[in-house]
């Protein structure tokens, strides 16, 4: 019972970290759009991005055992539930959307380490749009998860 409760609690913490970090990242991106030379906004942006990455790892580290470890429900419960597949599709969509920001921020980090000029990349406005889409999706996922966990069936 302790393992189930712990995994559940850390899964909820992952949601909180995800929402907070993506929201904070959006704020810092908007700061950079106003002033591209704002080094403090850039540092805070990359910190928020780190937390966003940690939350994704926490989702995986807690979600996979919950779905397939037979701790609460059988894998068949999840695999037959349409809301599980909606949740997985939303998670996959966030991962796809995250490719461009991930590559961009990785290049920024490398440039910072090498103390070179920031490499060219997508416009900050593009990154803001992607971030906002990710935030919206992350806000929807808990509602889909609640339907799934209560045995609602989509199809």
Question: Which helices and strands, and how do they pair?
Answer:
Elements (H helix, E strand, L loop, with lengths): L1 H33 L4 H30 L6 H5 L2 H16 L1 H16 L9 H26 L6
Explain this structure to me?
With 155 residues, the protein is mainly alpha-helical. Helices cover 81% and strands 0% of the residues. The protein contains six helices and no strands. The chain has helices at 2-34, 39-68, 75-79, 82-97, 99-114, 124-149. The longest helix has 33 residues, at 2-34. The protein starts with a helix and ends in a 6-residue tail after the last helix. The model has no long low-confidence stretch (mean pLDDT 92).
Summed up, what is this model?
The chain is an all-alpha fold and 155 residues long.
Mean pLDDT: 92
* Shape by Cα distribution: elongated
Question: Structural class given helices, strands, pairing?
Answer: mainly alpha
Number of strands: 0
Q: Summarize the biggest pleated sheet.
A: none
Stretches where pLDDT is under 50 for at least 5 consecutive residues are none
Rg of Cα set: 18 Å
- For the record, give the distance between the C-alpha atoms at the N and C termini, rounded to a whole number: 31 Å
Strand content: under 5%
Share of helix among residues?
over 70%
Number of helices: 6
Output the helix-strand order: HHHHHH
């Amino acid at each position: 019972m302790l393992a189930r409760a712990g995994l559940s609690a850390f899964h909820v913490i992952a949601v909180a970290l995800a929402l907070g970090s993506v929201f904070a990242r959006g704020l810092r991106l908007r700061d950079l759009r106003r002033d591209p030379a704002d080094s403090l906004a850039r540092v805070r942006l990359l910190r928020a991005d780190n937390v966003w990455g940690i939350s994704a790892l926490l989702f995986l580290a807690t979600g996979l055992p919950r779905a397939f470890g037979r701790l609460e429900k059988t894998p068949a419960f999840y695999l037959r539930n349409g809301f599980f597949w909606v949740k997985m599709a939303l998670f996959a969509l966030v991962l796809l959307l995250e490719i461009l920001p991930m590559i961009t921020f990785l290049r920024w980090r490398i440039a910072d380490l090498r103390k070179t000029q920031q490499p060219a990349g997508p416009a900050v406005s593009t990154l803001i749009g992607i971030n906002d889409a990710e935030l919206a999706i992350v806000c929807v996922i808990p509602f889909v998860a609640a339907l799934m966990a209560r045995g609602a069936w989509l199809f």
